[in-house]
Structure formats: C-alpha cells, structure tokens
Amino acid sequence: MRAREVIAAVVDDGSWLSWDTPVTRMPADAEYAAELVAAREKTGLDEAVVTGEARIRGRRVAMLVCDFGFLGGSIGIATGQRLTAAIRRATAERLPLLALPTSGGTRMQEGTAAFLQMVRITDAVVAHKAAGLPYLVYLRHPTTGGVFASWGSLGHLTVAEPGALIGFLGPRVYSALYGEQFPAGVQTAENLYACGLVDAVAPVGCLAGVVDRVLTVLAPPSRAGAAAVHEPACDAGAWETVLASRRPDRPGVRDLLLHTAREVVPLNGTGEGEVDSGLLLALVRFAGAGCVLLGQDRDCGAPLGPAALRQARRGMRLAAELGLPLVTVIDTAGAALSREAEEGGLAGQIARCIADMVALEVPTVAVILGQGTGGGALALLPADRVLVAQHGWLSPLPPEGASAILHHDVAHAPEMAARQGVRAADLFRDHIVDAVIPECPDAADEPRAFCVRVGAAVREALASLAGVSAAERRAARSRRFDRIGQVELAQAG
C-alpha cells in the first residue's frame, strides 16, 4: 500500500494534517537528481516519508509513514530531517507517535551521511520515549536494513503486516554478497512473532483498533471506586492451602483478566529473540487505571525459564518508560531446573528482576494468586503493595523440597508447610503482605466472584499509591523488607 492509502485506512475520515514542508533542494549529481524527479512524478510525493497528525478513533496521534514507491522508501538526509522534525514536534506537543515504516534502508546515492541519519532519528525517538510518551511501530512490507535496525525496532509495542518481509539484510544484498539465497521463511512477520521479536501480526485494517486499545490503557486514571474486600470466611491450615493452590480448576491470571480488565493488549516475547509462554506480558486497564501486567500463567504448565524473566524485565522497562504502574501476578510452582536454564542465566535473571523491581519509580503491586515457589516467585515480589489470595502461599521451595532437604523424604511436606509459615495468614502476620483476599471458601468453587475481589483489591492498592511520590514509595519499599523477620529476632533476644 502507498503512504496515502495507509493513512486513509488507519485515520478518521478528514482528520489528516500534514506537518511536511516542501523539499526543493536537488543534488548536484545529475543521475541522482533525475531519479528523484522520476520518484516524485511516480508517487506524487516529494520524499520517501510523509509526517503529520490525525485522529484515530477520536484520539490525536502523530504519524510517520514511509512510501516504498519512492526509491524503495530509502532514508536520505532530507528524509532524516523530516522524520526528526516530526518526532520532536510530537514530543513537544506530547502526542503519541505511530511509525509505519517500509524501507530498504539507507539511500545509497547519499552514502555515509544518509547512513548516519539512523542515529539522528533514533536520538529523537529516545527523547520522545524519555518524555514518557508512547511510541508504536507498524512494520510494513518490506522493512529492512538501517530502518529496521534503528527506529523500526524501538517501539513500546510493535505490530507487523501479515506476510511482510522484515529483516536486517535484504535478500538481494545477501544473494549478491554470498552467492546463495537467504533461507526461506526467516525474514517474515510470522517468524518474527514466533521468535518474540514483534508483539502481533495484524492487517492494516486492524491497526486503528490496536492503537485505540493501547491508548485506552495509557489514558489517565479515572476516579472509579473499588469494591469492598470482605473478611475471609475461613482460615485453612498450611497444607490445605498448598493443596488448594494446586487444584487444576483454580482460576489463574487469564481468568483474572477475563473477569476484571476493561482492556488487554498482549505483548509478545522479550523483543530480543525469545518468547516463553509461562509468563503473560500485557498492557491492561482495570476499571480505573492502566498498568503493565506481568502474570505467571499456571495453565501453561511449564516452569519459568530465563526467557520468561527477560520478558518480565521488558515489562518493567515499559512501565518505567510509559510511567505506568506495574502489577505482577505470582502463581508458579518454581523456576526451571535444567541445563538450558542454568546456561541461559536463570539465576542472574532472577537477580536482575529483583533489582529492577526494587528500583522502579512507578507504583508497583504484587498479587500472590496461588503457588509462590522459589526464585520464580521472588523475582516478581518486591512491590509497594503485596496482596495474597487466601490460598496463596510463598516459600523458598515447595514443601516437598524442604522436606527432602531436612528429612531426606517428601513425607514431611505437610509439617514443613506449617513450620515455614508459608500460608496467607502467616505472611500477613509477618508483615510480608499487606492484605489477604478472601476465598469463599475456595477460588476454584467461585472463580468469577474471586477474580472480581482480586481486581477490586488491585484497584484499591493502586489508588492508595497514586498520591505518593516516587521517592516516598522507594523509601517505603526498602523499609518493608527491612522489617521482615525483626519481630522474630526481638522475641529471640
């Protein structure tokens, strides 16, 4: 599709306003000048990109749109200047920015000076994101070279056109350099999705809906009130809690979103070539506020590996860049125990998740929804507010593992669960959690009602943090972990 066709397919009728000033300067090279004249006559454009603003579902959005018909959508000096000016204007006017590249990369006729425009454009994108403004990318067919390796790969959310050729080195260049064809099926939108490099593959006709959903999540919080959280109906023993958390019909993070979220925009993978279905990463809007959500997915059945934790760290970066609260949902039987996990840096990723969470300047809420085992749970725990379901629990190992260490068998697992203080009541007593979300009497028997209570508790926790400064939250976060275990030490003394 040509640039104007793409614009017409995405924006509200009659809302497009161009920001471009005419490009009149012509190069001294006669052959290149003739190519520019021909490209202008062919496309009706004066450069390979058009910029401007429009309304998308009523929302004001700045846009950068390439046209492959103009010298392969290549980026020259004038193109870079136009893109940079538009990005900086979007930042100054605090507009979300939607980039729709299709390009072969650098304009070879302009050489190195054109090549370095990628740095110039990237600098403007970085400043836009540093201002806490959304940057969304729609990769069109084809997108290769320097564009893909710079501003085409920096989106908070990246969507690709179905069947699009997307890659660093164009197939023609690869064939010329290496004397063989590039492997089939690698540089496709669908393969990039499978590798966790893009968040979705969707036709251009769906793009307006995606943009609308993202911006709905990012809208300022409303004053919607939270439903009251009732007192627990019963107080189960530790082993009963562990067994309840393992029921196959117990609601998980996807049930929580189904019953409580107003908008959910799933994100896919680390953005660096990995994807792990054990962790759900999404932009989510509950009744009153948007957030980044990291949810351990009990239905996946696979333990968390290093890729899942790298996905989690992507979510933490997104929350920081967009100024959104972070909500983590903990429900894991533990992190992966395998050679691949060890060699993939599992321990280091757990450490970096903890470090990233304790340093975040945005509000954070953690929900222990079910099982909370080991480093996989600890990685998502250090939040401003920590909530736990009545049959949620937290332990360095599953009780069977603790029994194996101390008793050389698993028969003492019930005893170890009680001894270690893993259940919700114990966690509340020890100041590890701030609130217990009741189950009446078991979440598996009342999934919808339970999820609604969890959603209400999350909204209430987020509301309690809204007026607190980042410095105050950061200091309070440190104090909460300082006080854990101090009661026991005082009693022992």
Question: Could you please describe the fold and organization of this structure?
Answer:
This protein has 493 residues and is an alpha/beta fold. Helix content is 42%, strand content 16%. It is built from 21 helices and 16 strands. The protein has a seven-stranded mixed beta sheet with strand order 1-2-3-4-5-7-9, with helices on both faces. Helix 15 links the parallel strand 14 and strand 15. The longest helix has 19 residues. The radius of gyration is 26 Å and the shape is elongated. The relative contact order is 0.08. About 2% of the residues have low confidence.
List keywords for this structure.
single chain; 493 residues; alpha/beta; seven-stranded mixed beta sheet; 16% strand
Largest sheet: 7 strands, mixed
Count of discrete alpha- or pi-helical segments spanning 4 or more residues: 21
Query: In order across it, which strands form the biggest sheet?
Result: 1-2-3-4-5-7-9
Helix content: 40-55%
What is the CA-CA span between the terminal residues?
A: 75 Å
Shape type:
elongated
Poorly predicted runs? 225-233
β-sheet strand percentage? 15-25%
Cα gyration radius (Å): 26 Å
Mean residue pLDDT: 92
Structural class: alpha/beta
Strand and helix map with partners:
Elements (H helix, E strand, L loop, with lengths): L2 H8 L6 E2 L11 H14 L5 E8 L2 E8 L10 H16 L4 E4 L10 H5 L1 H14 L4 E5 L3 E2 H4 L8 E4 L5 E2 L3 H8 L10 H6 L5 E2 L5 H12 L19 H8 L7 H8 L2 E5 L11 E7 L4 E7 L9 H17 L3 E7 L6 H5 L2 H14 L4 E9 L1 H5 L6 E5 L9 H9 L5 H8 L3 H6 L5 E3 L9 H19 L4 H14 L2 H7 L1
